[in-house]
Amino acid sequence: MQMMRRLTGVLAATALVAAGCGGTTARIGAGASDIVPASAPAFLAIDTDSSSSQWQTINRLAGKFPDKQKGVDAIKTDLSKQGKLDWAKDVKPALGKELDFAWLDFENNGRNFVALAQPSDEAKFKELIAKANASETDPTNHVVTDKFRGWEVVSPEQATIDRFEQASNSAAKPLSGEPTFKQSMDRLGGDSVVRAYVNGRFLMSLARKYGGSQVRPYLDKVGTLDWIGLRVGATSDGVGLDAIVHGTAGKLFKGIPTSSGFKPKLLGTAPANALLYLTFHGTKNMFSGLQKNALFNDPAYGQFAKPLQEIGRVLQGENAIYVRPGTSRSPSVPFVIPEVTLVAAPGAGTDGEAIVDRLVKRELGAPPQALTIEGTPVHAMASNGVGLYYADIDGKLVVTDQPGGIRGVKDRGESLSQSESFKDAADASGLPDQTYGFLYVDIHSSVPLVEKLARQHLPAEIGRNIKPLRSAVEYAVAHSHELQVSFFLRLK
Fold first, then answer.
1. Distance from C-alpha of 353 to C-alpha of 389, rounded to nearest angstrom
2. Are residues 72 and 216 in the same domain?
3. Is there a single domain that holds both residue 220 and residue 341?
């Protein structure tokens, strides 16, 4: 297995070394799916064509990092040391356009899979396998290969190859003809460097088989899981990852909202210098059933049921949590403490401030202090300008760790929604107008704060190589029978 992992690294990771040469039009396919049986529970396709548009884009992105060439040279050196392989003579000629993996099942610690390739030079491919095996001192870690229907099949064990070929020959249809596979590939799109597919029905069968008597009753209520798809791809702005779960919700999810999401109105309340912003939307009575849950019958947990129900009332609408540079210090902390603020919009008829008042009095055993910050009545449990501050501002509950959090909502100036950094991040990531929630991180502006908190500068090598990192955005959206979670790392 160790040998297989090493070989996979040689064939897949080193495609990055070749990304600086070639054309601009090729793109990843799913070619080996024509010989993979439809019963395969998982399939992974990796673009290893150095002339593809994706690798050309990745090469341009990598060029933004000052130490790109140093990293490429390190890969070449590692190939030479570990496998006695030369990039130009041994690896590059053996790479084809795509390296695929197909699993026969998930038994045997995940070893029951094969790698499939169509090398540009078959002789060089065989030489590559021979050299890789020769560099492995443990014979049990060697790999074997076989030519099958125009593809080189690679596996740690000959029995796995035999089983794969037999399954392929006897299959009523190939994986490429399986409706769930075709649907997943269509949804993922071809403009990617990695695409993966997992058969949902197979996963559900495993859950029933190994889940035990306590899990099986819930599986019947979960609904159907058709497939899971994963995509990694690059654009001129950065690198993104999309994960899609396709299925139909069952009785267990009855009552959970099925809308396409919400439009984040609270973006307009957050100051433009927010370094991290997380938004989500609660539901009415979201924690109302806790006291009926068996877990909360235990006295150790039961005490939290009522406070959580009250917190659920506060969070039943749109919510936002953000972090930005603070202005307060504590005698015991040798740096300016970051400001962390929660803004909740529970909706008409819910007094969030009164709910927090009750929680503070009951849980902390003392009433909060009554303060005024720039004309706004505020309740606090704090000392030296750091602690818990909360207030009702324009019908929204604002909870923060320092007075600046109240001022930031009351008189924020430019909002995060107007910030060029946020707008660039949202555009690059394809952030929709409506989501189930999203996370935004201003990486570029966060670095100085991290250095202040650490009370030291980052090492020069790290500092110059994180400069291209601008922001990260993660969001969740729903389509018909689908939940999609996307992540995008923006570079500049």
1. 11
2. yes
3. no
Q: What is the pLDDT of residue 21?
A: 41
| Same domain? 104 vs 239 | yes
Residue 338 lies in domain:
255-282+317-492
For residues 226 and 208, give the distance between their C-alpha atoms in angstroms, rounded to a whole number. 15
Q: What is the pTM for the complete model shown?
A: 0.88
Which two three-digit tokens encode residue 241? 């990852």
In a domain, 297, yes or no: no
Tell me how far apart the alpha carbons of residues 179 and 175 are, in angstroms, rounded to a whole number: 9
Same domain, 64 and 45: yes
**Nearest Cα to 322, choosing from 416, 235, 229, 389?**
416
Average pLDDT over residues 145-173: 96
* pLDDT value, residue 160: 96
Tell me whether residue 310 is in a domain.
no
| Residues 31-66: b if buried by 16+ CB within 10 A, e if exposed | bbbebbbbbbbbbbbbbbbbebbbbbbbbebbeebe
Q: Are residues 244 and 263 in the same domain?
A: no
| N-to-C CA span, the chain | 39
Domain boundary among 228, 248, 268: 248
Q: Is the pLDDT of residue 241 over 70?
A: yes
Token pair, residue 492, equals: 């500049």
Residues 267 and 192 in one domain: no
pLDDT in tens, 300-316: 666 677 788 888 889 99
* pLDDT of 197: 97
Among 89-98, 188-197, 319-328, where is mean pLDDT lowest? 89-98
d(CA 192, CA 55): 9
CA 252/CA 94 separation, integer angstroms: 50
pLDDT band at 9 (very low <50, low <70, confident <90, very high): low
Phi, psi dihedral angles at 332 (to 5 degrees): -95, 0
Which residue, chain included where needed, has tokens 């307009």? 268
How many structural domains comprise the chain? 2
Cβ atoms 222, 200 nearer than 8 A: no
pLDDT over 60 (residue 1): no
Instruction: Name every residue whose Cβ is closer than 8 Å to that of residue 309 and which is 6 or more positions away in sequence.
Output: 287, 288, 290, 291
As separate numbers, helices (DSSP H) first and strands (DSSP E) second, the chain gives: 15, 18
pLDDT in tens, 252-261: 666 555 556 8
Residue at 433 is within a domain: yes
d(Cα 158, Cα 491) in Å, to the nearest integer? 44
454 domain-assigned: yes
Residue 22, pLDDT above cutoff 60: no
Domain boundary among 223, 248, 273: 248
Residue 181: CB atoms within 10 Å:
22
| CA–CA gap between residue 312 and residue 290 (Å, rounded) | 11
Say yes or no: 56 and 145 in one domain.
yes
Question: Based on the domain organization, do 372 and 345 belong to the same domain?
Answer: yes
pLDDT in tens, 349-377: 899 999 999 999 888 888 899 999 989 99
